[in-house]
Specification:
Layout lengths: L4 E3 H30 L8 H26 L1 E3 L15 E6 L5 E7 L10 E3 L3 H4 L9 E6 L2 E11 L2
Parallel strand pairs: 1-2, 4-5
Antiparallel strand pairs: 3-4, 3-7, 6-7
Helix pairs in contact: 1-2
């Protein structure tokens, strides 16, 4: 089974979240449970049940992040040398062939994708159409309602 790729930046963000969950959120939830227990009858104690639910969410998220980090192939984009080709982690400047507008995307792992931040998933049609291409290549992408053509203006590994 192929390991899912993740940028070093994405792994760093997950590690930071994991640290926060373990050092801040988990102790806060444990303290809330202890405080709610001190109020007596647990069967009718809404604070206790809410704190237990929050603790369950935190523990689940910790397990999820640990599993993702363990399974991922972490790639340091700055060390890539793909000869100007579009590969995982590359930042690509594109020019729309219809209207001349430009857009920049970095191709990242599924967990890191955020279109508003200019990061698209390696599994997205727009990223798959560009893998292996180089500056000057024109690629077509099926978009809702029509096919769009983009020229790859630049490929960077940052």
């Amino acid at each position: 089974m192929k390991r899912p790729p993740m940028t070093a930046r994405g792994a760093g963000q997950l590690r930071a979240e994991l640290k926060r969950l373990k050092t801040e959120d988990r102790p806060r939830a444990i303290k809330a449970i202890a405080e709610a227990r001190s109020h007596g009858d647990l069967s009718e104690n809404a604070e206790y049940h809410a704190a237990r639910e929050q603790q369950g969410f935190i523990e689940g998220r910790i397990r999820e992040i640990e599993a993702r980090l363990a399974a991922a192939e972490i790639i340091d984009v700055a060390t890539l040398n793909a000869g100007g080709r579009v590969v995982f982690g590359a930042t690509v400047d594109l020019e729309d062939q219809d209207d001349g507008s430009t857009v920049t995307y970095q191709i990242v792992g599924e967990d890191e994708a955020d279109i508003r931040a200019g990061r698209i998933s390696i599994g997205s049609p727009i990223a798959r159409a560009r893998i292996g291409k180089a500056s000057g290549d024109v690629v077509e992408v099926a978009a809702p309602g029509r096919t769009r053509s983009y020229e790859i203006v630049a490929v960077r590994y940052v």
